[in-house]
Design a protein that fits this description.
Bound molecules: NADP nicotinamide-adenine-dinucleotide phosphate
CATH superfamily: NAD(P)-binding Rossmann-like Domain
Shape: globular
Helix content: 25-40%
Strand order of the largest sheet: 4-3-2-1-5-6-8-12
Oligomer: single chain
Structural class: alpha/beta
CATH topology: Rossmann fold
Number of strands: 14
Number of domains: 1
Radius of gyration: 19 Å
Largest sheet: 8 strands, mixed
CATH architecture: 3-Layer(aba) Sandwich
């Protein structure tokens, strides 16, 4: 019998792709989200702050894929927004844990989004692996606390896989869409020094990795979900210019301007990290897109 997979935060960039991919491959999918949406997929409602969850969502489900979390780059990081970024992640996993501890169910596998932000920002030749200690900046602290909640679910004898996702390349939204906007308007320039590294993954490879995590029982714990072929901000800006047939100007957008515009959030564009994909490759996972050129060519920018 095919698996029945429950996805939280499924209305977002990754969840929409994953839902289509899983359905095309014959999996049954149900969604849990903040609002009930009309459509082909059954949607059940939860309220993470109020701690409520419609337990009917669990009927026949053997795998949960958790993607829920307030968008990191959607709004300026005020104190209350930072709390929302953290608690929308920690409280949602804690709520799933509570529901799984107190309700009868058949769930054997819990796969969750995490982020390479766990490692913090890297400098020079430093390459992050799954054994790297967590960083100390805001996003690293969020991700560490998010993963600590995921780890607690293992105590229910449920297999837990944490995918530390890099920058997802998609033509349906996310970082690439934002990076392409100024380039398309003939205003493309590297940001800050332009040397900060971007550890990216194509959305199709990420979807395939979630499926592997859901179905391959040998996977447990944390895996970096990146292509392993990081590029600098300058390189990706130039590559987008090439695909869009637009110039990229040699004048960099100064870091102080971005800091004035974005506040502390500017760190996510001014800093980066080199993250290896060796651990997921060792499980036999094969990437479809390993070069930035091939990844960008496959997308409609
Ligand atoms: N895209 C990337 O480049 C990237 C990189 C690293 C990590 N990740 C992580 O991967 C996950 C999925 O990414 P994504 O790009 O698909 O994110 P997304 O497009 O922002 O979608 C996340 C979903 O989470 C739910 N959500 C939003 N605010 C919430 C809140 N306050 N409380 C509970 N749920 C909330 C929403 O679903 P409903 O409206 O259906 O409830 C939303 O569609 C996220 O947790 C993200 O942090 C993404």
């Amino acid at each position: 019998m095919s698996k029945k997979i429950l996805i939280t935060g499924a209305s977002g960039l990754v969840g929409s792709h994953l839902t289509d991919m899983l359905q095309q491959q014959g999996y049954q999918v149900v969604h849990v989200g903040r609002t009930k949406r009309a459509g082909k997929i059954s949607t059940f409602v939860w309220d993470v702050n109020a701690g409520t969850f419609d337990v009917q969502a669990l009927a026949g489900v053997d795998t949960i894929i958790n993607l829920a979390g307030a968008g990191i780059a959607d709004k300026r990081w005020s104190t209350s927004r930072k709390r929302e970024i953290l608690e929308s992640r920690t409280k949602s996993v804690a709520l799933l844990n509570k529901v799984l501890s107190t309700t009868s169910h058949q769930v054997t596998t819990f796969v969750s989004a995490s982020a390479i932000g766990y490692y913090g920002f890297g400098f020079g030749d430093e390459v992050f692996t799954e054994d790297t200690k967590p960083g100390t900046d805001f996003l690293a602290n969020v991700t560490k606390q998010w993963e600590e909640e995921m780890d607690k679910i293992q105590q229910l004898s449920i297999r837990v896989v944490k995918l530390r996702i890099g920058i997802v390349l998609s033509d349906k939204g996310g970082a690439l869409t934002e990076m392409a906007k100024p380039v398309r308007m003939f205003a493309g320039s590297p940001l800050g020094s332009g040397k900060q590294n971007l550890s990216w993954i194509h959305i199709e490879d990420l979807g395939a990795m979630f499926l592997k995590a859901a179905t391959d029982e040998t996977l447990r714990g944390a895996y970096s979900a990146v292509s392993g072929n990081w590029v600098s901000n300058k390189e990706i800006t130039k590559a987008i210019g090439k695909v869009l047939n637009r110039p990229v100007w040699p004048v960099h957008v100064p870091a102080f301007v971005l800091k004035l515009m974005l506040g502390e959030m500017a760190n996510i564009v001014l800093q980066g990290s080199k993250v290896t994909a060796d651990k997921i490759k060792q499980t036999g996972f094969e990437f479809k897109y390993t070069t930035l050129e091939a990844a960008l060519k496959s997308l409609r920018l």
